[in-house]
Write a structure and sequence with these properties.
single chain; BirA Bifunctional Protein, domain 2; elongated
Length: 418
């Protein structure tokens, strides 16, 4: 059992107790298998990502994980990242490639219809897989993988809308991290340097940088206690970006979410809109990630909470333990009531009570609910909230109501009665 006072555990060590994901040489390195409890966590994160996207007026789309090599030549990814992409597959005379990014397909979706200046912005959202041919030596659990499942939105807007849309994306990303309980250390303004890898005119880069500085101010970073730090050389090859930076328990820094301005791909794909005077004008693309990649976020959450996840994310929210066979019916009634309320209980009747409690603690079940002879007679539950130091008797109806309310509100914990 992990001692919370000890050195923080890596998510791979935590996974030995929680069984969120597995790896198998037959599946391949860097291709984790999401186990049932991991699927629960991922489904909750995906639901959060969808809600935040819809609240911002994003439209859901689906696109294939494959594209012709010519697509990535057009987007610029092939020239910049072909060494990090999987090799083309020859199919029916076409060279198909596992996509390294989702934006080229979203550019094609935008291009599938004509757009007026009055329709913009168009916001397309998809939680989609993309692929990186990472070297075997750098692969690590969920933090470095070859298939990344990313909460990805691409906004197509007029130049005068860039700052407002970037601010909208930044606020959504900050809200997501607030809900997840992942403290953001600072926001990085990632800029280009003198390297020749960056595409586009200097004037476009200046406009993008100015818009992102305006967006950071509009999102109220100072009021959130966050600084904006310039980082030359950290930009994407197609434009500057705002990165939400977090540090793990070992002090290592990661980008958890991002908002990026892109003038390059709209130009390469000829994306535009009809202006008020009837002329054709180029559109600007904004790449925004809110929740982020499922793999990296789950790794960060496991380490942030040392496996004891907030109630709404916990695969097992309540472990129900009858003391003996005489309490089986009461325990089953509680488990059924929790299920009916949309919660995730686990009924564990076999073995000694002490062993079952130890197993529940090791699995980091969020709540432990014990029903003995006195609890069954009184209609109460002996509740242990390990993560928040609560132990006490709660009436069954109140218990179900409190836990269900905390879950629906995505609260990190239950507010227990005094």
């Amino acid at each position: 059992m992990h001692d919370d006072r000890a050195q923080p555990l890596d998510h791979r060590d935590i996974n030995r107790d929680l069984r969120v994901f597995a790896t198998d040489a037959l599946a391949g390195a860097g291709l984790p298998l999401w186990l049932p409890d991991g699927a629960v966590i991922r489904e909750e994160l995906q639901a959060l990502a969808r809600e935040l996207a819809r609240a911002d007026g994003c439209q859901g789309v689906y696109s294939p994980v494959l594209g012709k090599r010519a697509l990535y030549e057009r987007s610029g990814h092939w020239a910049k990242f072909s060494d990090d992409m999987f090799p083309p597959m020859s199919v029916g005379g076409d060279e198909l490639v596992l996509r390294p990014a989702n934006c080229p397909h979203h550019a094609l979706i935008y291009a599938a219809a004509q757009h007026s200046y009055r329709e913009l912005p168009v916001r397309l959202n998809e939680l989609a897989a993309m692929f990186r041919a990472e070297r075997s030596g750098v692969l690590s659990g969920l933090s470095r993988v070859r298939q990344i499942n990313l909460d990805d939105t691409h906004v197509f807007c007029r130049p005068d809308q860039v700052a407002a849309e970037a601010a909208r994306g930044l606020r959504a990303a900050l809200r997501a991290q607030e809900i997840l309980g992942l403290p953001v250390d600072y926001v990085r303004l990632s800029l280009r340097d003198d390297s020749p890898v960056y595409l586009g005119a200097a004037s476009q880069w200046r406009a993008g940088e100015d818009a992102l500085r305006e967006a950071a101010a509009a999102a109220g970073l100072a009021g959130r206690g966050l600084t904006l730090a310039d980082a030359p050389g950290e930009a994407a090859f197609y434009g500057p970006k705002l990165d939400l930076q977090v540090r793990d328990g070992r002090g290592q820094e990661e980008t958890i979410a991002t908002v990026q301005v892109d003038f390059n791909q709209p130009d390469r794909f000829g994306l535009g809109y009809t202006a008020a005077d009837g002329s054709r004008q180029p559109v600007v693309m904004i790449h925004r990630g809110t929740v982020g990649s499922m793999e990296r976020v789950v790794a960060a959450l496991l380490e942030r909470y040392q496996g004891r996840l907030p109630l709404w994310l916990a695969p097992v929210q309540v472990c129900v333990l009858p003391v003996g066979p005489a309490q089986d019916a009461a325990a089953r009634r509680l488990a059924d009531a929790l299920l009916a309320a949309g919660l995730r209980p686990r009924l564990a009747p076999e073995g000694s009570l002490g062993a079952r409690v130890r197993e529940s603690r090791q699995r980091r079940d969020h709540l432990i609910a014990v029903i003995g002879e006195s609890e069954a007679a009184a209609g109460t539950i002996a509740v242990t909230d390990v993560g928040h130091g609560f132990r006490g008797a709660v009436r069954e109806e109140a218990f179900v109501r409190l836990v269900a309310g905390a879950y629906r509100g995505r609260c990190p914990q239950v507010s227990w009665p005094a």
